[in-house]
Specification:
The protein folds into 4 domains: 102 residues, no CATH class; 94 residues, 2-Layer Sandwich (Beta-Lactamase), CATH 3.30.450.20; 64 residues, Signal transduction histidine kinase, dimerisation/phosphotransfer (DHp) domain (Helix Hairpins); 152 residues, 2-Layer Sandwich (Heat Shock Protein 90), CATH 3.30.565. The chain contains 13 helices and 12 strands. A 5-stranded antiparallel beta sheet has the order 2-1-5-4-3, sandwiched between helices. The chain has a 5-stranded mixed beta sheet with strand order 7-9-10-12-11. A two-stranded antiparallel sheet has the order 6-8. The longest helix is centred in the N-terminal third of the chain and has 44 residues. The chain is elongated. It is an alpha+beta fold. A hairpin with a 3-residue loop joins strand 11 and strand 12. The two termini are 95 Å apart. Helix 1 runs antiparallel to helix 2, helix 2 runs parallel beside helix 3 and helix 9 crosses helix 11. 54% of the residues lie in helices and 17% in strands.
């Protein structure tokens, strides 16, 4: 800038002086030669002064322009904190102040945009859903950490890579293509083969307008929801079946009595006994369902207290003695041999009684006539335990992990014949866990089963 201004001024002065000299030279005669020489010397002196003046003037005008040019360059490079310093008065000072104000506003706007972007990233990173943004070439623009967890990739390393290269499963790619091919959002679901395997729902929505071609992909792990829904369906089916069976028996029995069987005293007694038995079965099922509902809803209202374990076991054995005797079963209590006194547990008395009753009742049902049921207990450190062992039919190894599930039966036909609801062991598990304890099972097919319950010990 300086040299351009300086050259302009200098060329202007030289041109003017040259024109003056040429005029004098043409018109001058010999008599004026001396005068010409004096004038030429004066012109040379003026020329030197003009050059110096041009240099100073050009420098004064070029410096603010250079400052403005440097400020504009740094502003274009993103240095919004730079301030243009121009002294004096005039248009260049006003222009510098305008550029400084623009720089400050741009800095504030970009700070706000960066804050909003970081806030958006933090929100997306904290979501339980996976979020992936892709452009019109299927390249990943953004992916949060949850998306990487669900689809097995590093979210920080997949930007600018094609989504179909990062996720290779054809089902997922098909859902993405269907979502991009239509104008409306598209939903789909596929089985991620893992590991671990899971069910993932996919929501694909194109970006509105033409400002940003592409789409956003939202992923949600629905594995637990699917499992819960499956359990709910199985539960409803099992409850319906369990309710339908005794109701069908009661209905057919009443119809038989109404058709004339009530006139025969012997038949009447037999059918009424059958109705009573099925009604008791219905009542037991409903009570177990209500108990399980209260347990799972956290409405037990347990009141833990010091409970003598040996006395509770003795009372339980006495309550079931008649039923065991009717099957010629031998029931044996085995107190701890190394204890000098009563073992106390910290538990709810009613819940403990229900746990014991269910386990002993289960042992009686599945132990053949002439078998043996042993109830032993003891303590170790800050815990106490009791075991209900039988010499019954046993449980296959593959069924052991599921015996505490609702309505799960190892032998469905035998379970229904002995009157089980399929909820007893599930209730046992929930009650024991509510009392801060554990329940375990060990079994040998054809030799018997042992349930062991561990509870917090009191007074140790």
């Amino acid at each position: 800038m300086f040299w351009r201004l300086f050259s302009s001024y200098l060329l202007l002065v030289i041109t003017a002086v040259g024109l003056v000299g040429l005029v004098i030279y043409i018109r001058a005669e010999d008599v004026f030669w001396n005068l010409f020489q004096e004038v030429a010397a004066a012109i040379a002196a003026v020329l030197l002064v003009a050059v110096a003046a041009s240099c100073v003037l050009a420098r004064r005008l070029a410096r603010p322009m250079d400052e403005l040019n440097e400020g504009a360059r740094r502003l274009a490079e993103g240095d919004f904190g730079h301030k243009i310093r121009v002294s004096g008065h005039g248009e260049h000072v006003s222009l510098a102040e305008t550029m400084n104000a623009m720089s400050s506003r741009l800095a504030a706007m970009f700070d706000l945009l960066e804050h909003d972007r970081e806030q958006l990233r933090a929100i997306l990173s904290g979501m339980v859903e996976g979020v992936i943004a892709i452009d019109d070439h299927r390249q990943i623009v953004f992916a949060n950490e949850r998306a990487g967890v669900l689809l097995g990739f590093d979210a920080n390393r997949v930007v600018k890579r094609e989504l179909c290269e990062v996720v290779l499963q054809p089902e997922f790619r098909a859902i993405i293509e269907q979502g991009l091919s239509g104008s409306e959002p598209h939903r789909g679901e596929f089985e991620w083969k893992g590991p671990p395997s899971r069910t993932i729902s996919v929501y694909v929505s194109r970006f509105p307008g033409s400002g940003m071609p592409g789409a956003v992909v939202v992923l949600n792990d629905t594995t637990e929801h699917k499992q819960t829904e499956k359990l709910r369906q199985e539960f409803v089916a099992n409850v319906s079946h369990e309710l339908k069976t005794p109701l069908a028996v009661i209905k057919s029995t009443i119809e038989t009595l109404a058709d004339g069987a009530a006139e025969d005293p012997e038949a009447r007694s037999l059918f009424l006994a059958q109705v009573t038995r099925e009604a008791d079965r219905l009542e037991a099922l409903i009570q177990d369902l209500l108990s399980l509902a209260r347990i799972e809803a956290g409405q037990l209202g347990l009141e833990p207290q010091s409970v003598p374990l040996g006395r509770a076991i003795t009372d339980c054995v006495e309550r079931h003695h008649a039923r065991a005797e009717s099957k010629t079963l031998t029931m044996v209590e085995r107190p701890p041999t190394d204890s000098t006194g009563e073992v106390y547990v910290w538990a709810d008395a009613d819940a403990l009684r229900q746990v014991m009753d269910n386990l002993v009742d289960n042992a009686i049902k599945y132990t053949p006539n002439g078998g043996r049921i042993t109830v032993r207990w003891g303590a170790s450190g800050d815990t106490a335990h009791f075991e209900v062992a039988d010499t019954g039919i046993g449980i296959p190894d593959e069924d052991l992990p599921r015996v505490f599930e609702r309505f799960y039966r190892v032998d469905k036909a035998r379970s229904r014949s002995v009157g089980g609801t399929g909820l007893g062991l599930s209730i046992v598990k929930h009650l024991v866990q509510a009392m801060k304890g554990q329940v375990r099972v060990a079994s040998s097919l054809g030799k018997g089963t042992t349930f062991r319950v561990t509870l917090p010990r009191y007074g140790h």
